[in-house]
């Protein structure tokens, strides 16, 4: 048996393409809803969308919506919440080729994530100034792309001073957290000690740490 999954974000996007009435409501019917709460899947469920937002979801018998709503039958399909990529890198790659970092490519990468049902991306390093403005629109992000959270440049350096300069640059960008690489990056840089972590931890910045071993800050 072939099982189809549809994310809630994809449903929101679909309503923009498939509306055939003047109603502000699009209702997806006859779905199996997995709401992410840990409860059992809800069969014969409906999802109600208005203004690009999900306004109601649950068993068909308990959900009301306007009689003139545009309805889309999703019999045989499953609806799940949007997925979160908690460790990604955005903006540099086209296909499998790197070196393409730009605002346009960030948007394209986030659009690809959205089409695969990933609604939020945590970018852990390699983020430049072009990403800052896109991160700042998370509360009003268009439905066509995933939301973005950034870490800025990965903190590294041969001296504490070099690492501190990276921290200061990231802080000026207003990053959501910072990433420290304490391994040797496959032999391409010296390993970092706790001396390097202090500039970023003293102001209570959230740290993401890449290390082959457990470490304490």
Please provide a written account of the structure.
The chain is an alpha/beta fold and 217 residues long. It has five helices and eleven strands, in the order E-H-E-E-E-E-E-E-H-E-H-E-H-E-H-E. It folds into two domains: 4-80, Urease, subunit C, domain 1; 83-210, TIM Barrel (Alpha-Beta Barrel). It has helices at residues 8-18, 103-115, 129-135, 160-173, 194-201; strands spanning 4-7, 25-33, 42-50, 53-59, 70-73, 77-80, 83-88, 118-123, 147-150, 178-181, 207-210. Helix 4 (160-173) runs parallel beside helix 5 (194-201).
List its traits:
single chain; 217 residues; alpha/beta; Urease, subunit C, domain 1; TIM Barrel; six-stranded mixed β-sheet; three-stranded parallel β-sheet; elongated; disordered N terminus; disordered C terminus
User: What is the CATH architecture assignment of the largest domain?
Assistant: Alpha-Beta Barrel
Q: Provide the structure class.
A: alpha/beta
Mean pLDDT: 81
- Shape descriptor reads elongated
Question: Tally of extended strands?
Answer: 11
CATH superfamily of the largest domain: Metal-dependent hydrolases
CATH third-level topology of the largest domain? TIM Barrel
């Amino acid at each position: 048996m072939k099982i189809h999954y549809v994310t809630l974000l994809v449903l929101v996007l679909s309503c923009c393409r498939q509306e055939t009435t003047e109603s502000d409501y699009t209702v997806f019917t006859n779905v199996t809803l997995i709401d992410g709460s840990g409860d059992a899947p809800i069969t014969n469920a409906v999802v109600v969308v208005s203004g690009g937002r999900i306004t109601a979801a649950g068993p068909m018998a308990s959900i009301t919506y306007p009689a003139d709503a545009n309805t889309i039958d999703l019999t045989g399909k499953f609806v799940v919440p949007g997925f979160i990529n908690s460790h990604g890198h955005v903006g540099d790659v086209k296909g499998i080729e790197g070196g393409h970092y730009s605002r346009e490519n960030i948007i394209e990468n986030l659009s690809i994530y959205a089409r695969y049902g990933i609604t939020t991306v945590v970018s852990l390093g390699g983020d430049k100034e072009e990403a800052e403005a896109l991160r700042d629109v998370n509360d009003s992000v268009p439905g066509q792309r995933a939301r973005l959270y950034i870490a800025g440049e990965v903190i590294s350096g041969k001296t504490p001073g070099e690492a501190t300069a990276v921290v200061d640059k990231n802080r000026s960008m207003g990053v959501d957290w910072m990433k420290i690489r304490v391994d040797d990056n496959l032999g391409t840089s010296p390993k970092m000690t706790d001396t390097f972590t202090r500039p970023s931890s003293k102001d209570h910045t959230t740290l993401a740490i890449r290390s082959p071993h457990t470490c304490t800050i």
